[in-house]
Amino acid sequence: AEGDVILVNNPPGYFLASGRSSIAIPDGDIASLVAVARRYGGKYLLLEPSHPQGLAELYQNPGDRPGLRYLTSVDEVHFYRFSDE
Fold it and tell me: What pTM does this model have?
């Protein structure tokens, strides 16, 4: 939906490309990522090749994790939805 909060690597670039606001992926691991998404109402994650080192495993092996549901990949970008788990 229009107001969904999306976490991305480059919020200004995402805004220029899409016209939509977003928040930055935090530097840290999956637990930090999920905590930030919960705190700020994040619904989706767009994980690109240029990602925080703590998310390397999530990028290299896309799939469901606690608090995250893998949706799909397009080109080299993985799409996730944050869940309540």
Answer: 0.91
